[in-house]
Amino acid sequence: MQSATLAGAFDDLADSYDHRHHEEIARALIAWVVPGAADAVADVACGAGAVARQLAPNRPETARPILAIDLSPGMVAVGRALATGPGGDAAIDWRVADAVPLPVAAHSLDVVLCASSLHFLGRRALADWRRALRPGCRVGFTLPLATHFRPSERFSRHVADDVPLPHTAQEASEWTATCGFTGVDSRIHVLGTRRVVVTSATSPDGP
Ligand SMILES: C[S@@+](CC[C@H](N)C(=O)[O-])C[C@H]1O[C@@H](n2cnc3c(N)ncnc32)[C@H](O)[C@@H]1O
């Protein structure tokens, strides 16, 4: 039987998840934001940790483990199994929980990254990222391009109605600025027939 919850839907998908596709999106996101090797980083709604697993091998041993948090125990279990090799699992702090709010103190993160998930989290996530980030630090996320988003019925009912999927990079930047971020920069990333918008922005200095 298919689970009615979002976590259950991703649990059911965990073993057949398209890792190659999502790892390419995560790579594009990392290249757009360029986190420092020792930065305090969160991989928000990490799934199988496409972002965290790419950052882990370059992490110095002294750096705080990357917070990788997701609602789906099945996706996190797959991520843990894939996180082997140098810097692998030890560099990642896996959590199974709601990612909003993030379980971190205010202004304690240098970088928040969220690949392919913000449209499930809703706009409230951006307010929380402003809380979690040190002023002047970076956030990066990807969203599907509106014209290329075709979720199945079981996923579409979990899509937040307060995150407008962008038709252009400029739309993504303008919306991000309305959420209180500055220095917003977006681009469209092409993956075969699919398209995503990659956005980076800065957490403002003031409240
Ligand atoms: C399309 S997957 C993307 C996963 C991963 N970031 C990647 O790039 O492969 C969306 C993920 O968002 C997670 N998710 C959705 N809402 C969440 C929430 N409120 N808290 C934590 N995780 C959430 C789902 O469990 C799922 O793993």
SSE layout:
Elements: H1 6-13, H2 19-33, E1 41-44, H3 50-55, E2 66-70, H4 73-82, E3 92-96, E4 109-114, H5 118-121, H6 124-132, E5 133-144, H7 153-156, H8 169-178, E6 182-191, E7 194-202
This protein binds S-adenosylmethionine.
Structure description:
The termini are far apart. The chain has 207 residues and is of the alpha/beta class. It has a 7-stranded mixed β-sheet. It has a single domain (6-202), classed as Vaccinia Virus protein VP39 (Rossmann fold). Helices cover 32% and strands 25% of the residues. It has 8 helices and 7 strands; from the N terminus they run ααβαβαββααβααββ. β1 (41-44), α3 (50-55) and β2 (66-70) form a beta-alpha-beta unit. It binds S-adenosylmethionine. S-adenosylmethionine (SAM) is lined by residues 6-7, 10, 22, 25-26, 45-48, 50, 70-72, 75, 98-100, 115-117, 120-121.
